[in-house]
Design brief:
Length: 342
């Protein structure tokens, strides 16, 4: 009997260890929110979409749906990349719907004398983050979620300066593409906390709204990031966030544009993504009405096609060996990707 109990315990442990990293790219109507569920059972939500008054369908409702679908009772770690309205959401309301363990962000919002509403939103957020418990991030920090490795690459306008493991090669694309000018009107975008999420051989890059100017410094003159398996495209796929010298250096087989029907996945972005080395597929949350048919993927790779909006998400299941499956919750279509030898 004792040997049987030990055998069953061993099998149970093996089954737990074999669980995948589950990722939900949630449709929050052109905002951003991504839920990560570690094989350990701990979770991390990266951004909280829109506050309810600015969106006919509350982002928090969509987030709670994903949390419930994932079988979670709480969000262990909430990371707010930056304080633009479509990422900050309404954390006070979210916390009333699902418990949050700890909050991470890049610090404080600079005084905006001409935007009282932004300051008011931030103050409400500041109060709830202090109630929950809060840590200010800097490049090189790690989110302490068990079972996966989450490292901060950018925060508060600063970037990592040393290459990640297996990265650091000279990027020949830096001689082809000049660094684009920073946009003063979008300074908060470039304060984004950007993350690299690792599980065994699987790697996903999500730089939130870091724009092309700052992204350049992660790729030039040396590629500090290396190759990734999934790239959640900067700034919802808006052209201002696309640095070809970074995109082309990632060698990502899958790219995801967390866009809205009329926000992101710009027509100018499409050819730069499609021409990237190693790319197999682009997945999108919405059909991009601004881009047209020639700059959108096939329907199976779009969670919410033209004329339909049922808030479907894209789900990624990643195995420790680096293989992963991307699935469309609208129709059940999925595609499996094997990790190529580097």
């Amino acid at each position: 009997m004792t040997r049987l109990i030990l055998l069953l315990a061993s099998l149970a442990t093996s089954l737990i260890a074999a669980r995948d990293l589950e990722i939900y790219v949630i449709d929050v109507e052109g905002g951003k929110s991504v839920l990560f569920v570690s094989p350990s059972g701990e979770s991390m939500l990266f951004d909280a979409g829109w506050p309810t008054p600015n969106n006919g369908s509350a982002s928090n409702d969509r987030i709670v749906e994903a949390v419930t679908a994932a079988g979670l009772k709480r969000i262990d770690f909430l990371v707010i990349s930056h304080f633009d309205i479509d990422h900050l959401g309404d954390v006070t309301q979210l916390e009333s719907k699902v418990p949050i363990g700890h909050v991470f962000d890049h610090g404080d919002l600079p005084v905006l004398p001409n935007d009282g509403r932004a300051m008011q939103r931030f103050e409400a957020y500041r109060i709830i983050r202090e109630k929950i418990g809060h840590t200010t991030l800097k490049p090189g920090d790690r989110i302490p979620i068990k079972g996966i490795d989450v490292e901060v690459l950018s925060a508060a306008g600063r970037l990592i300066t040393k290459p990640l493991p297996h990265a650091g090669k000279v990027n020949r694309l830096c001689g082809t593409y000049n660094q684009r000018e920073a946009l003063a009107s979008d300074a908060e975008d470039d304060r984004s906390a950007g993350l690299i999420i690792g599980f065994g051989n699987f790697r996903m890059l999500d730089l939130a709204d870091l724009e092309a100017h700052s992204s350049h410094d992660l790729a030039c003159p040396d590629n500090l990031i290396g190759s990734v398996d999934v790239y959640n495209v900067n700034v919802h796929g808006q052209f201002k966030g696309i640095a070809p010298e970074l995109v082309g250096a990632l060698n990502a087989p899958v790219m995801i544009q967390a866009n809205g029907a009329r926000k992101g996945a710009d027509a100018q972005t499409w050819p730069l993504l499609r021409s990237a080395p190693g790319l197999q597929d682009i997945w999108q949350l919405h059909y991009s009405l601004n881009a047209g048919a020639s700059a959108n993927p096939a329907a199976d790779f779009i969670a919410n096609p033209e004329g339909q909006d049922s808030f479907h998400w894209i789900r990624i299941s990643a195995a420790h060996d680096g293989s992963f499956t991307v699935a469309n919750s609208r129709n059940g279509f999925s595609k499996h990707y094997l990790r190529e030898k580097q």
